[in-house]
What we know:
This protein is of the alpha/beta class and 344 residues long. The protein folds into two domains: 2-129, Response regulator (Rossmann fold, 3-Layer(aba) Sandwich), CATH 3.40.50.2300; 160-343, Methylesterase CheB, C-terminal domain (Rossmann fold). It is 34% helix and 21% strand. It contains twelve helices and 14 strands. A seven-stranded parallel beta sheet has the order 8-9-7-6-12-13-14, with helices on both faces. The chain has a five-stranded parallel beta sheet with strand order 2-1-3-4-5, sandwiched between helices. Strands 10-11 form a two-stranded antiparallel sheet. Helix 3 (63-73) runs parallel beside helix 4 and helix 9 (263-273) runs parallel beside helix 10. The radius of gyration is 20 Å and the shape is elongated.
Amino acid sequence: MTKVFVIDDSLSVRNGFKNLLSQMDDIELIGEADNPIDALNVFKEVGLPDLFILDIEMPKMDGLSFLKKINAQRPTPVIICSSLVSLGSTALIDALRLGAAEVIEKPKNNLNELFVTYKEELIEKIRTVAKANIHYHSDVSSTNKLVTKVEHEHPASARVIAIGSSTGGVQVLEEILTHLNPSHVGIVVVQHIPKSFSASLAKRLNELSKHTIVKEAEDGDIISNNTVYIAPGGIHIQIEKEGLKYFLRLKDFPKVNSHRPSVNVLFSSVAKVFKANAMGFILTGMGDDGAIGLKKMWEAGADTYVQNEKTSTVYGMPKIALEMGSAIKALSIYEIIQTINEKE
């Protein structure tokens, strides 16, 4: 039985989760509190849970401070449920960097949308995240390791690296991008993340990456060396070739594999236009998005890899891709960095 604890200053939200969790025979709600300080007192009676559902803005102690405190004692899977999602808050980006596995948007008015419309999706996330392999980073702060770069135009790339990730991916992306060599080909990333988050994520990763320019992708961007393009939330991203240059195209069509942007959409376009002049990686995440597209890349002659189970927060997407024969090898985060840098 998986034990869950909800910390949120909204009684309606706590009651909503209480009702939802009561319908799950493999989940037990062991406690709730409207702030982290009161929650710490409840833990003395009920013990620590297997999963926290946590708000960010609360009285007495904010969610980010609690996340640091509790994970310093015992790293525990966390789902952030916050109305700040719609604002693309950097606090939520830092929560993901600290080790929060998932972020879901808390509607400001209609909670029915969360607990009824997205009920099945919410249940799947709770069950998956409760079993996540948490990697706690204790040194994350809004000013930690920020770097200043002089941005200038880089030559267009003749090759590309395509990366797809989901649950737990923000931490891995930070680890990879902050350890890239000073010169690398263009990199295009699809990270499953709420629509309003992609710009904040790109901004934060750009501040942390010493040698690399990280930006939210725009329609018509020319893929250039030393640049990482983060796919915008809520829209698909593809690559097209015009002459000797490769352009990013943002396409608004229905979800693929339950996602928009979809890793499969990006990878399929890479296979079509770059063929063997590409490298593909599927990182940690739930579901199967990317497996089919990575297979197409492999069939076109590209080098294809997945993150290994030991270093993945959720070994879903990588496992399925490996089972399909889409990847030639499973790599640790260190080995992924090494593989990218050795190719340059």
